[in-house]
Automatic annotation (TrEMBL):
CDD domains: PBP2_Bug27. The keyword DNA repair does not apply. It comes from Muricoccus vinaceus. Residues 1-21 form the signal peptide. The lineage of its organism: Bacteria, Pseudomonadati, Pseudomonadota, Alphaproteobacteria, Acetobacterales. The keyword DNA-binding does not apply. This is Bug family tripartite tricarboxylate transporter substrate binding protein. Belongs to the UPF0065 (bug) family. Keywords: Signal.
């Protein structure tokens, strides 16, 4: 009798679980909102839209990009953190929003470890060191550093904001080289470029996606790329190590994120979609042309890279001396 009751109980539980699974809708059943925490037209926005196109094809639902910029990306990421954990509000969060900003800002509206779910790394962008063809005579990193040391008052460099990877890379370069420098932060690379072309700013080291076009037009010289190997679309540009600056491999990656407590089946579905996007040769080429590289990981793989790079970015923030309210 006991065995029969156990068997009946097990059968009933199995049928109930099956009925519940059948009752739950398959994900996704409606459009997904993908929050980009930076302005339209910038590197993160352009690459986010390529990712959204690929995900739409694989998920069978519209993936609508929404730009919510401000506070170094914190506003957009916070909107994702405070959304319902159902997979219909996602975001792309650059390394700054996971690792840099917690060391940079005195207070944060969200805790990146507690309030977010990293679903997969999505793409990364190298930084490229550039100078104006017209106003800076150097055509190599070695010549530029010599020119910068001799320049009265030091070098003026522009970035897309305080605490960005552009800012931290620039400070690291000039402090290592012992060169006096003045930081001029702008809202985006779109404002830095005209300042460089007019001679108001001497130097920038920022996302390739923002500078690829102006380099190809011949108005700026690329002195070095912050990658371990030469970039496929610009093989003529040396790596920073080849240019004489060792131990300078720094890329700005972005992850596909959701709020905390995102169900594992949803995470798995999204992670599989990103992996399929990254494996598509046509989409990989679109990323490369835009100045980025497609990435894909499991949720655990995304967390592993974040944990591994956290000490490096913390050191760079401390070296820069930057602090934000």
């Amino acid at each position: 009798m006991l065995s029969r009751r156990v068997l009946l109980g097990s059968t009933t539980a199995a049928l109930a679980a099956q009925a519940q699974a059948q009752a739950q809708p398959s994900y996704p059943e409606r459009p997904i909102r993908l929050v980009c925490p930076y302005p339209a037209g910038g590197a993160t926005d352009v690459l986010t839209r390529i990712l959204a196109d690929g995900m739409r094809e694989r998920l069978g639902q519209p993936v609508v990009v929404e730009n919510r910029s401000g506070a170094g990306g914190n506003i957009g990421v916070d909107a994702v953190a405070k959304s319902a954990p159902d997979g219909y509000v996602l975001g792309t969060a650059p390394v700054g929003n996971f690792i840099i900003n917690p060391f940079l800002y005195r207070s944060m509206p969200y805790d990146p470890v507690r309030d977010l779910t990293p679903v997969s790394l999505a793409f990364e962008v190298p930084n490229v060191a550039v100078v104006s063809e017209k106003f800076v005579p150097a055509r190599s990193m070695e010549n530029f550093l010599s020119w910068a040391r001799a320049k009265p008052g030091g070098v003026v460099y522009g970035t897309s904001g305080v605490g960005t990877s552009a800012h931290l890379c620039s400070e690291l370069l000039f402090k290592r080289a012992g060169i006096a420098c003045t930081h001029v932060p702008f809202r985006s690379a779109a404002q830095v470029i005209p300042a460089m072309l007019s001679g108001d700013v001497d130097f920038a080291i920022d996302n390739l996606a923002s500078y690829a076009g102006i380099i190809q037009q011949g108005q700026m010289t690329a002195l070095g790329m912050t990658t371990a190997e030469r970039w496929p679309t610009m093989p003529q540009v040396p790596t920073m190590a080849e240019a004489g600056v060792p131990d300078f491999v720094v890329t700005a990656w972005s992850a596909l994120i959701g709020p905390a407590r995102l169900p594992m089946p949803v995470q798995d579905r999204l992670s599989a979609a990103v992996q399929s996007v990254a494996a598509d040769p046509a989409i990989r080429q679109r990323f490369l042309v835009a100045g980025g590289q497609a990435l894909a990981t499991t949720p655990a793989g995304a967390r592993e890279r974040m944990d591994r790079e956290r000490p490096m970015w913390k050191e760079m923030v401390e070296l820069s001396g930057a602090r934000m309210e």
